[in-house]
């Protein structure tokens, strides 16, 4: 079996191409790739902050950085 990947330049033509390929169902199996969801700004910001936090924790474990104690944070307020 051979595999062929099509990149459709004009999304409006997709239904026509699917219909055309379905006419060859005896010879062709159509497997659609699931659509990937795009992240919103809020989700992107959350992921960036999460990545930053994980990096900080990893650096702390490797003793490349230090943290403040709870008492030091309260004194700053």
Question: What attributes characterize this protein structure?
Answer:
77 residues; mainly alpha; 3 helices
Descriptive account of the structure:
By secondary structure, the protein is mostly helical. It has one domain. It is built from 3 helices and no strands. The protein has helices spanning 14-22, 41-61, 70-76. The radius of gyration is 26 Å and the shape is elongated. The relative contact order is 0.05.
What's this entry about, in short?
With 77 residues, the protein is mainly α. It has helices at residues 14-22, 41-61, 70-76. It is elongated.
List the helices and strands and how they pair.
Blueprint: H1 14-22, H2 41-61, H3 70-76
Mean pLDDT value? 87
Q: SSE order, as H and E?
A: HHH
Low-pLDDT segments:
none
Number of strands: 0
Q: How helix-rich are the residues, as a percent range?
A: 40-55%
């Amino acid at each position: 079996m051979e595999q062929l990947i099509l990149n459709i330049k004009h999304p409006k033509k997709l239904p026509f191409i699917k219909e055309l390929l379905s006419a060859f169902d005896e010879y062709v199996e159509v497997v659609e790739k699931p659509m990937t969801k795009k992240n919103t700004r809020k989700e992107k910001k959350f992921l960036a902050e999460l990545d930053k936090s994980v990096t900080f924790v990893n650096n702390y474990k490797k003793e490349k950085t230090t943290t403040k104690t709870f008492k030091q944070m309260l004194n700053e307020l």
